[in-house]
Amino acid sequence: MALSSPGTGSSGTSAASGSTGPSGPSGPSGQSGQSGTSGSSGTSGTSARPTRGLLPLLLAGNTAMYALYIGVPGMLLALQIEEIDPAGKVANFGLVSGISAIFATVFNPVAGALSDRSGRRNPWILAGGLLALPVMLLLGGVHTILLVTIAWCLGQAVMNVYQAALTSVVPDRVPVAARGKASAAVGLGLPIGSTIGALVGAAFSEHYRTGYLVFGAIVAATAVVFTVFAREERMPAKAPLPVKEQITAFGSALKDHDFRWAFIGRALLVLGYFAVAGFQLYILKDHTVLPAGLTAEGAVAILAPLTAVAMVVSTVLGGWLSDRFDRRKLFVGASAALAAVALLIPAVSTSWTAMLAFAVVNGLGFGCYMAVDTALVTMVLPKAEDAARDMGVLNVANAGPQIVAPFVASLVVSLSGGYTALFLVAAVLSVLGALAVRPIRSVR
């Protein structure tokens, strides 16, 4: 899974998490640029009337996706790896997360291109969603790090089939005038899905094999509901963009001064965020002093809703204030700096109170950053006619750091012997991300 920018087709869902996503959190990892390009003309999105009830279906579809992306790598996968090799859990988790993120980044554009060429989204959403169930069953039944890696790569494959098609629905079916609402529906899937993922993961922490099945069932059921009620018309098939042209487009966009600095700032902030987010369970187990009777899994179930609420509040408030004062750089820089401050809290204190404060402050900073920075990026795109393509380029700044983050985090923890250094490194990256917006000239 990759954190990405809203409203840009396959190249952009809304912000992620905390795969926490360790990919997803790692969240999980690339987005397809193909479908985003296909929607750039707006022919389908502007002329077609959206299916009645499409926005709640988009919310449900993205919520299910983020629930799996947060609950599986952020909780169940970490527990499974710890059970297999307790002494090497940090290095092994970094290895599994990194390899699967690379796999997802490569596979997502392929899945997007296949759905583009078929002219359909629903069959791919349904296929990816239904296949999540047997793949989660497989993942829960393996007992070596190698097989866990292979099984989770398969999980990333089927989820990226689902994700690539789902994120193309907005530009395909939603008129331009309604895309703000659609992006909000997509965006709300992250905090809601993160909360559900953390709660379900915590509930099945002692029976993670059953937990895998529950997440697979959630995605499968949601895929069925979405494809039954969100009817679609076959669209003209689209030829995939050749790899050489994609590479040329990437280099062309980064030649623009302002866009390049926006790209660098996003990459630094995302790297710092996911370096910590991916190892949250291990941090709670090995770094934080939890109250008597509170397990690390239970702590995740408390922290996730706090972060989610803070993200929702700061996303709405930050976007509104940046519009009101017409100051994007100020809010982007301030929110990145706030994220850095949040990371210092658990670095100087191992208390449970410090982690609670970190969850709230980090959610406020990251939510505001993603909302306002996305708006800033749309204002520094090199060419209006290449907007969808260039937003796809920006998503490299989302997906790439998520690939690197597990390796960086495991290396820092292994060399330093603890998590304090990881928080400090992540804070420095956030500060650099805040400073990166200063050279931007065309936006206040």
Automatic annotation (TrEMBL):
Domain of life: Bacteria
Keywords, sorted A to Z: Membrane, Transmembrane, Transmembrane helix
Stretches assigned to the Major facilitator superfamily (MFS) profile domain: 55-444
Name of protein: MFS transporter
Transmembrane domains' residue ranges: 54-78, 90-111, 123-139, 182-204, 210-230, 263-283, 298-318, 330-348, 354-381, 393-413, 419-437
PROSITE patterns cross-referenced by the UniProt entry: MFS
UniProt topology in membrane: Multi-pass membrane protein
Cellular compartment(s): Cell membrane
First-listed, main subcellular location of the protein, grouped into a coarse class: membrane
Segments of this protein annotated with the region Disordered: 1-49
InterPro entries with a match to the protein in the record: MFS, MFS_dom, MFS_trans_sf, Tet-R_TetA/multi-R_MdtG-like
